[in-house]
Design goal:
Length: about 450
């Protein structure tokens, strides 16, 4: 355990900032990319059937399924941020209590969410815009990915966050990658070999996330003695709920409001027919790819920021944030150029059907313009979360996704129409960037006071 502590201290306190961020973030980014690929896999393989109705059904349920990520962030990121700050303050004894509540408390909350989702499936899918043609597909997808697969999806996310909080980024990423690769393998088997179509894609996702949980449990057993994180239910306590939720709530709010915006967008798009819903669903999955890379960078550098903040090493914390912003901007610019140049080819990969792919290509070229600004706004919010500034982060998130995005979506739909809704995210990010930067610099200056 002593050797592990020394290794952590060198990583968080002495290793050059670019190298430390690379050590923590590169495995996380890779795991996010693999996770994104397996999220894309459902849409990709279902799209090969060339039935826009099936793609539309997956698109309708996806924002609700992504709320499981919000629960994973509420318990997992909240817990991991607190653990990183505990380690920076040299407080190792309470880590086991935080980790046990994050895992088991999160599992219980997700079970309730999953059951309520199934019981309320009819009004829920009706709100999302399911038509008579897409309802059956959407219902079967909801059953497998949310009702049956909800708990393993959330638990795998939480276990990965907690491993990462102690600097075990490689093991955390391996667990996510294992589930992702398995899903890519199972999707075509269930969809085409067993001819299960949309239900097959959903089954593959649920089974893959369950396998990821098994992987993490085995990994924790292997690391016994090298980690303060515990899975033992005997350590369950509500003592750290406030500290976990004060940070986790901001991240969960970001994910929940982002998906609420997607639900509103899908609902409004359904008024134009099933083809726009299918096209938007594909574009949202593709556009999420660079954002997941930024998310991997965020989750990778959070333990470093949390540790250095608790240890009062503010210059190192600032260098970590600045370097991460620059890296995010460079990566985002590369994605924008790629999407702008190859949008038609990318869309045809996902669905050969001409009308949907043509409309989707136009959507993608607009949507990708917001990616660089979104990445920077993400990084600022996650920096504040890592510092334990959950309130400030929550304010930024609420402004971006609640106060601005949803009302603007409705306004743009009423005044401009379908394409206006696609421009909304760029408008929101332009408005929010100076607000985010202002809050970050004011928070940092207060540390110097």
């Amino acid at each position: 355990m002593q050797a592990q502590t020394e290794q952590e201290r060198y990583l968080f306190e002495e290793m050059p900032v670019p190298q430390a961020i690379a050590t923590l973030a590169v495995p996380t980014i890779i795991s996010q990319v693999v996770t994104m690929i397996y999220n894309l896999a459902d849409t990709f393989f279902v799209g090969q059937i060339s039935d826009p109705l099936m793609v539309a059904a997956v698109s309708l349920v996806s924002p609700w399924f992504n709320l499981l990520t919000a629960l994973g962030n509420l318990f997992g990121l909240g817990g991991s941020s607190l653990i990183s700050r505990m380690l920076g303050a040299q407080d190792h004894k309470d880590v086991k209590y935080v980790s046990v509540f994050s895992i088991w408390g999160g599992a219980a909350a997700t079970l309730v969410f999953s059951l309520v989702s199934w019981l309320a499936r009819r009004p829920l899918l009706a709100f999302f815009g399911a038509s008579a043609d897409t309802y059956g597909y959407a219902e079967s997808y909801l059953l497998w990915v949310v009702t049956l697969g909800g708990v393993p999806t959330m638990v795998s996310l939480a276990l990965g966050h907690l491993l990462r909080s102690e600097g075990h980024a490689r093991q955390a990423s391996a667990g996510m990658m294992f589930g992702g690769i398995l899903n890519v393998i199972l999707d075509p088997v269930f969809i085409f070999v067993f001819r299960l179509n949309v239900a097959g894609a959903a089954m593959a996702t649920a089974l893959s996330n369950t396998a990821s949980v098994v992987f993490f449990v085995v990994e924790y057993a292997r690391l016994k003695g090298q980690t303060a994180v515990s899975l033992d239910l005997h350590f369950f306590t509500f003592r750290f709920v406030r500290s976990i939720f004060s940070v986790g709530l901001a991240s969960a709010l970001a994910t929940a409001l982002g998906n609420a915006s997607n639900m509103v967008m899908v609902h409004l798009a359904s008024g134009y027919g099933d083809i726009p819903v299918a096209a938007y669903g594909i574009v949202k999955r593709i556009d999420q790819f660079p954002l997941n890379v930024s998310m991997g960078l965020c989750q990778g550098f959070m333990p470093l920021v949390g540790y250095t903040y608790a240890a009062k090493k503010y210059d190192r914390m600032r260098r970590a944030s600045t370097f991460s912003w620059a890296a995010a901007l460079v990566m985002s610019a590369c994605f924008v150029a790629c999407f702008a140049a190859f949008a038609p080819q990318i869309l045809r990969l996902f669905i050969p059907e001409a009308e949907t792919s043509t409309l989707g290509a136009a959507f993608l070229r607009i949507a990708c313009l917001a990616v660089p600004l979104t990445s920077v706004n993400f990084l600022i919010s996650y920096t504040l979360q890592a510092m334990g500034k959950g309130v400030q982060s929550a304010i930024l998130t609420s402004c971006r996704q609640g106060l601005l995005n949803i009302p603007l979506l409705i306004l743009m739909d009423l005044t401009v129409g379908l394409y206006g809704m696609i421009w909304t995210q760029l408008v929101v990010e332009i408005i929010m960037l100076p607000v985010s930067l202002g809050m970050y610099f004011r928070t940092f200056r207060s540390l110097r006071a």
